[in-house]
């Protein structure tokens, strides 16, 4: 009996020691260079050569694994059927030239974005924190973070090369101010579907000149003034379905959204009266209302609406009246802000103009000084002297 117990204990100890040895040595994981299928920014299937790691399972201590490949200069790395709370640091150490990283559905909790990464597919995880090396990236062009647990975008503002940002289905994100995207001057696609937004604000100081696709669907927006979109002069497609909208200023759409081609508006509590007017106004301006299928009886252009038109219309009229005061003050504030931006712009142009005048007179001086052949006319002498004076004043400054 006693002997049996000793043997069991020895066996347990032996197994434990073996496990320790294995962990200390570090598991070596090798990827397979293969054609990998994924979807691009327009949801088109795409196949490309990736080095693919399969079945990588790691616990909280992700440092145990060492990632290798037959060649370490692969630029695209993917994980399939894998699970770890963060991408093991040794991956970035061994593959120091990764440009594309595919880590969809890996149970990630934090995401690190290294300097050279250009595309990161990190949807379907549990990401609550994103860390950018150096708090910024000049390389990152496409970032997919759909289906995660982000609560804020504070770490995602310094991304000047970003073109595509997909934040769909991060229900903890909440209200968003478009000013958070101010530095993303090349952004053409912004997906904010199902992020738990109940109101949008826009304190952008400069327009986002490239933004063409904006998805705000399936949130809890009750009222969105089209003025909110005035900073997106290239906006072509806007998704607003699945909100709580019942009113939209159709008459201002064309002036505030000059490039808009389609607006998706179904699945909102429209009153049929307003919807009919809205639909006509948009169509008259060449804007397509895209719709789902309305299965209830009351619909305008296949967009569902409520038969209690009057009730709804009265409700928005009442609400507008109540808001009018606030709106007026908001208008004044926005005009003041715009005015301030214009004033600063003017100041900048004025300074540039001053510089330009100095620059223009400078070569003239050099030319005149060089042109010693022949007696200069008194007029030329005068202007040369004047320029010299200016030049000296300029260089003293
Ligand atoms: C933001 O970045 C910092 C520094 O990299 C990091 O410590 C923090 O966890 C990040 N926070 C979020 C919410 O992503
Ligand atoms: C990045 O931001 C965090 C706070 O978010 C800060 O503590 C850290 O010093 C910053 N790092 C760099 C390199 O700027
Ligand atoms: C004026 O010249 C300086 C130096 O040659 C140059 O840096 C600057 O951009 C010029 N300014 C303008 C407005 O052309």
UniProtKB/TrEMBL annotation:
Region (Disordered): 369-397
Keywords on record: Coiled coil, Leucine-rich repeat, Repeat, Signal
SUPFAM superfamilies registered for this protein in UniProt: L domain-like
Annotated Acidic residues bias: 387-397
Superkingdom classification of source: Eukaryota
Keyword flag Signal: yes
KW Ribosomal protein (keyword) present: no
UniProt lineage: Eukaryota, Metazoa, Ecdysozoa, Arthropoda, Hexapoda
SMART domains associated with the record: LRR_TYP
Gene Ontology cellular-component annotations: extracellular space
Signal peptide: 1-21
Coiled coil: 332-359
Record protein name field: Uncharacterized protein
InterPro entries: Leu-rich_rpt (IPR001611), Leu-rich_rpt_4 (IPR025875), Leu-rich_rpt_typical-subtyp (IPR003591), LRR_dom_sf (IPR032675), SLRP (IPR050333)
Pfam families referenced in this protein's UniProt entry, alphabetically: LRR_4, LRR_8
């Amino acid at each position: 009996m006693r002997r049996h117990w000793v043997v069991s204990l020895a066996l347990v100890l032996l197994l434990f020691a073996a496990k320790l040895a294995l962990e200390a040595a570090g598991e070596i994981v090798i990827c397979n260079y293969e054609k990998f299928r994924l979807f691009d920014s327009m949801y088109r299937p795409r196949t490309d050569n990736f080095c693919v790691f399969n079945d990588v399972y790691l616990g909280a201590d992700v440092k145990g694994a060492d990632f290798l490949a037959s060649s370490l200069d692969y630029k695209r790395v993917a994980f399939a059927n894998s699970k770890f709370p963060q991408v093991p640091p040794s991956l970035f150490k061994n593959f120091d030239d990764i440009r594309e990283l595919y880590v969809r559905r890996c149970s990630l909790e934090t995401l690190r974005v290294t300097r050279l990464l250009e595309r990161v597919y990190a949807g379907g995880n549990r990401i609550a924190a994103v860390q950018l090396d150096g708090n910024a990236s000049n390389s990152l062009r496409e970032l997919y973070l759909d289906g995660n647990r982000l609560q804020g975008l504070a770490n995602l503002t310094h991304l000047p090369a970003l073109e595509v940002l997909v934040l769909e289905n991060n229900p903890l994100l909440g209200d968003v101010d478009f000013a958070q995207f101010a530095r993303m001057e090349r952004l053409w696609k912004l997906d904010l579907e199902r992020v738990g937004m109940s109101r949008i604000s826009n304190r952008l100081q400069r327009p986002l000149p490239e933004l063409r696709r904006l998805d705000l669907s399936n949130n809890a927006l009750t009222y969105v003034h089209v003025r909110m979109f005035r900073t997106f002069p290239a906006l072509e497609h806007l998704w607003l379905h699945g909100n709580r909208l019942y009113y939209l200023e159709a008459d201002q759409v064309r002036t505030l959204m000059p490039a808009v081609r389609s607006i998706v508006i179904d699945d909102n509590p429209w009153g049929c009266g307003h919807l009919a007017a809205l639909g006509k106004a948009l169509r008259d301006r060449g804007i397509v209302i895209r719709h789902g299928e309305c299965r209830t009886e009351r619909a305008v252009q296949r967009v569902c609406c409520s038969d209690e038109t009057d009730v709804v219309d009265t409700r928005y009229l009442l609400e507008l009246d109540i808001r009018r005061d606030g709106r007026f003050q908001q208008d004044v504030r926005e005009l003041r802000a715009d005015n301030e931006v214009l004033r600063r712009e003017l100041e900048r142009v004025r300074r540039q103009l001053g510089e330009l005048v100095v620059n223009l007179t400078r070569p003239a001086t050099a030319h005149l000084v060089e042109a010693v052949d022949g007696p200069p006319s008194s007029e030329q002498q005068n202007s040369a002297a004047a320029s010299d004076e200016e030049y000296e004043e300029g260089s003293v400054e």
